[in-house]
Amino acid sequence: MELLAPAGNWEAFLAAMANGADAVYLGGQSFSARHYAENFNKERIDDALNYAHLRNKKVYVTVNTLIADHEFASALDYIRDLYKMGVDAVIVQDIGLTHALRKLIPDLRLHASTQMTVHNSAGAILLREEGVKRVVLAREMSRDELAKICCEVKDIEFEVFVHGALCYSYSGQCLFSSLVGGRSGNRGRCAQPCRLAYQLFSRTEDTPVASEGRHLLSPADLCLIEQLGDLQRIGIHSLKIEGRMKRAEYVAVVTRAYREVLDSMAVNPGSTVSPELRKRLERIFNRNFTAGYFLMDRAGYLSPKRPNNRGIYIGRVVEQSQDFTTRIKLTEELRVGDGLEIWVKKGQGPAFTVKDILLQGKRVSQAESGDIVNLKIEGRAGAGDRVFKTYDSELMENAQASIEAASRSKLPLDILVSLQEGEPLSLLISDGEGRQVKVKSTGLLQKAEKHPLTFEVLQEKMERLGNTPFYLRHLSLSGEENLMIPFSELNETRRRGCDAILQLLRGGPLLSEDDELAYRHIKDKYLYIPGSPSRQGDSHTQAQGKSLPLLSVTVSGIAEAYSALEAGADKVYLQLAALGKGVVPRKGDLKRLLQAATTANREVVPALSRIHHSSDKPQPDFLAEEGVGAIMVGNLGDLRAFLGRDIGIYTDYSLNVFNSYSLRFLLDLGVKGVCLSPELSWKQLQSFGNIDKVEMLVHGELLLMISRHCILGSVMGRKDAVCSGYCRQDSFFLRDEKGFEFPVLSDRDCRFYLFNSRTLCMIEDLEKFLLLGPGSLRIEAYRYNERQVSRIVGIYRKALQEIKFGQRPELAEYKKQLMDSSFSPFTRGHYYRGVL
């Protein structure tokens, strides 16, 4: 199995290389999902490729963000440059970019980011058909689910995260940072709102539900170092360490630990992980460790008491004097330079670096387990307070030493010099592993009069490799003696030889001018998107008389679906995930609803669950029998599963269609309609051209997160219970420290849904939507009852009809009426502000 380590900067890259990584993934200055890491410019990427390829290691570059239309051409050129530089793969999220790259640079190796939320076999098959060579699977997959996908899908590699921070939401399905703070995780700028404090409330109680801590969305850190044997037997190709935002020493320690276990497994497949090694991982950084969904570790999944590094427990406070001298009894060793934090019973405890240790009245550099030491600290602590080491100076020093050694590391060359009078001097340069080059001087060797090329002279000249990544390991001579050639020519031959062996070891495609011309021609053709019609002038005048977009609504129950149809909805998405107290529609109920819609010349579309694991409850098997003519899918797997069937397909906004190229890809597959990403602004939407098959969100509570971990079960239920059932008994919400309330629901597979604290309302901007010309405008009514659905749909229907026939609707008044049916204040989302 490949060990894949992160690199947020050059030092972290060296740390990974020095400590056993087979490959490193890193980001450039743009289009990277870790925008706030230091990252790499093109020159540094080239340095990384040189360093790695000379050592038979690989470099993958992340371009794993959604790409806007205006960025598309520069993104393609950037990736083309990466290809010419010889990167081993590019990691991508955007499905439109993926499709374009396959057409434009077919030889480029593509890896599908975990941001694509691939969690089933059909999703992997779709990407394999798009030429993707590796899929980074969702972190939410269990051991059995991973085994199933590896068994069912061949000719593609699978990569899984094995260590580091977890996201509470499925990656690629989180809009929390985006809608709350304008910083999109899909664009590499996540503000990590899941690490903040929240309290859980029910609608029927005034007090928060009791919990172990307030960081209810903050996962513990993943650690699968004890499950590497299982992963190998399953058939996983690559083991990925999270951490491009972590410091280089973290990369060094974690990479070394996993390398040691893999090396031990190679010798003894039954070897176990030592307690010392696991403690090393805890000492460098941890929020507690969990095996996550691999072992379905529900009890240990969260770290609710603190969202940051807790370090390791090293003792308790015995007493503290008035001058803050604190006596601590140790359970682990302590050194000068270590960082400590004391967990006090209330408030924030002291955190400090140890500068002096007093042991039995003497100043010492370190103390051992069982010792009672005196430390001078800043801040109050009480007897019995626990002490944690959050910075281990010895561990850090060892890690730094490995990085420094890597920075000085050079590779050996063996050089054979052949000398023959009247012939060019010949250098055969090899790396000792069978790779070699041969270069010759331009001039000819002659009899020496004063300065013959002796072994000592050649040794001195060949050792001059200072600015190269090489050193001379062995020199040998063949041929005649007492010959000479100008030293300048000898040095030039050596330089050409080093360049040649460097190029050989470095690798990369050899591209001709014709290749470049072909690329530019195809790119220019592919980037052409028919322009949209003029949208200048009075919006009301231009909007009247236009064909109205359909009015669609997403509901959670049969009764709400009837209400939507009666109020004027053209299309009703009936979700089948059974959110909250909802149930999956029964066979006859769905058939009658479909007949009612057909009679009214309307459409009812069952909406499949956005997440569809192989272990989930099966989707209803009576859809075809009921006369269902179309379905809505929310993931790549369900999209692939229904392609080619005699059924229409709509795609939800969970597919993150952020540019016209992703839209074009889906429509070319035969999709009937596409809901665009709610992160798009008006300006971006205007670049799409013809969008008559596009759906846009205009009203409702947007879904911020989907998680496989249910807060209701972890906070209120038994630790060993799969499902507490509380979601069927009451309504719940999370409240943050600013007082904002985020409604929550769970579905029939115990997945957890977090909704925005504000309701999207674009009633005052309807004329703008009509000018854009979308095929459908959509209301999100997951949590609305029959009366609310009827009122909201009726108001939007009335306003659209008035615009259609040239009347000026009282949109401000309609907005006030909509407030009566709203759970929360209104927002206009990203239509005006966009996202970073």
Give the class-level CATH name of the largest domain.
Alpha Beta
CATH topology (fold) name of the largest domain: TIM Barrel
* Gyration radius from CA atoms, angstroms: 32 Å
Counting DSSP E segments of at least 2 residues, the number of strands comes to 41
- Which CATH-level-2 architecture of the largest domain? Alpha-Beta Barrel
Shape: globular
Tally the structural domains: 5
What percent of residues adopt helix (DSSP H or I)? 25-40%
Query: Class by helix and strand content?
Result: alpha/beta
Low-confidence stretches: 532-537
The CATH superfamily title of the largest domain:
Copper homeostasis (CutC) domain
State the separation between the terminal residues, measured CA to CA.
37 Å
Oligomer: single chain
Beta content:
15-25%
What is the mean predicted local confidence, pLDDT?
93
How would you explain this protein's 3D organization?
The structure is a single chain. Helix content is 31%, strand content 23%. With 836 residues, the chain is an alpha/beta fold. The chain has five domains: 2-166 and 219-294, Copper homeostasis (CutC) domain (TIM Barrel, Alpha-Beta Barrel), CATH 3.20.20.380; 171-209 and 703-755, no CATH class; 312-393, Translation factors (Elongation Factor Tu (Ef-tu), domain 3, Beta Barrel); 411-506, no CATH class; 539-702 and 757-827, Alpha-Beta Barrel (TIM Barrel). Strands 28, 29, 30, 31, 32, 33, 34, 39, 40 and 41 form a ten-stranded mixed β-sheet that branches. Helix 5 packs across helix 18, helix 16 runs parallel beside helix 17 and helix 16 (558-567) runs parallel beside helix 23. The radius of gyration is 32 Å and the shape is globular. Pfam families: DUF3656, Peptidase_U32. Residues 387-503 form the Peptidase U32 collagenase domain. This is Peptidase U32. InterPro entries: Pept_U32_collagenase, Peptidase_U32, RNA/ubiquinone_mod_enzymes.
